[in-house]
Amino acid sequence: MTLARDWIDTALNAKLTKNQLLCFLAVFHQSLCYGKSSDAVTDKRLSEISKVRVDRLRPAMHKLVELGVIEAQEHDRFDGEYSIPAELISANNGIVFSPSLAKKPAAQPAAQPAAQPAAQPAAQPAAQPAEPAAQPAAQPAAQPAAQPAAQPAAQPAAQPAESLQYPASFYQDDRERAATILDGLSPDTASDCLALLTRAMQQDKVKSPHGYLYALVGKARDGVLDTAPLRKSAEPSREKTTDKVALMELRAQIIGIDSMAKLSGGMDTTTASKRAALIAEYSQIAARFTAAASGTAASVAA
After folding, report:
1. CA distances from 78 to 43, 44, 46, 75, 257 (A)
2. Cα Rg for the chain, rounded, in angstroms?
3. CB-based contacts of 122: which residues, under 8 Å, 6+ apart?
4. N or C, fewer C-beta in 10 Å, the chain?
5. Which residue in 162, 156, 195, 167 sits closest to 179, CA to CA?
6. Can you tell me the mean pLDDT for 227-246?
7. Percent of the chain beyond pLDDT 70?
8. Neighbours of 223 (CB within 10 A)
């Protein structure tokens, strides 16, 4: 484990930030843990392993190279090839292997069985007849009491994510991130948080949906979540939704698509078609809304 220890020491002495340390561990995992001195990998894969966002991953990797913790070179198929510093490999005679712990000797387990059988059969047959009667009564009583109490308490947390109503602009990854934020809440409380988020997005009050949801969950955990707006907005039916509300919903969906495209660096054909359809529907309702407003103004003037 000399090479692994030396490489870890290099990272510790560099006083890395959290993101830099996570990126180092990802490179360590992809290279030395598989017995390799380097590994060619995409930024997306490194982001998945390190849990560091792609836009923050590149600066962290550049800083690791600058500090001499890793070495990097361009690759014709992947975003880069990252390797163990050459001086560390040279210091270990050029030997690169996957680190592993030494196996414990088998002498200790062999010594215990030899001592117990000799002592118990000789001394305890006459003195301990009462123990077999006590043990069967104790074990059945302890096991059933522990298992039924644990199983019902673990299942309710898995149900909310499947039945919750997320905002219409949320894609699958948005829903998974929201489900992580809502983890631990009861189904009713989680539904209230999502309903308040959707309502705020329709009113164009939200810049960061997940940040807004995180704040709502914090209030819910503190017992100060205000659900009065939901009680008021629940009275009118879905069929009576006004053109103004419909326009806000469509606008929120379009903004959501544009935000995702900006983060991912592009938009595929399916998403572009969906965005075009939303814009067309928005324009149609906006024209109807404007015409209705003009007609109302004209009747008032007459």
Report:
1. 8, 10, 11, 5, 27
2. 31
3. none
4. C
5. 162
6. 67
7. 72
8. 6
State residue 153's pLDDT score: 44
The pLDDT of residue 60 is: 93
85 HSE (CA, 13 A, CB side): 19
Q: Mapping DSSP to helix (H, G, I), strand (E, B) and coil, where does residue 185 land?
A: coil
The correct answer on CATH 1.10.10.10 for the domain covering 2-91 is yes
3-state SS, residue 95 = coil
For residues 6-32, give the mean pLDDT. Answer: 92
> Quick one: pLDDT at residue 300?
43
Q: How far apart are CA 267 and CA 63, in angstroms?
A: 30
Tokens 């595929």 belong to residue: 268
Q: Using CA atoms, how far apart are residues 7 and 32, in angstroms rounded to an integer?
A: 10
| Strand 38-41 relative to strand 71-73, pairing | unpaired
pTM greater than 0.90: no
Please provide the distance, in angstroms rounded to a whole number, between the alpha carbons at the two ends of the chain.
Answer: 90
Token pair in block for residue 21: 């340390």
Structure confidence by residue, pLDDT tens digits, 95-145? 877 676 555 565 555 555 554 554 454 445 444 544 544 454 445 444 544
What residues does each domain of the chain span?
2-91, 162-296
Identify whether the C-beta of residue 171 lies closer than 8 Å to the C-beta of residue 257: no
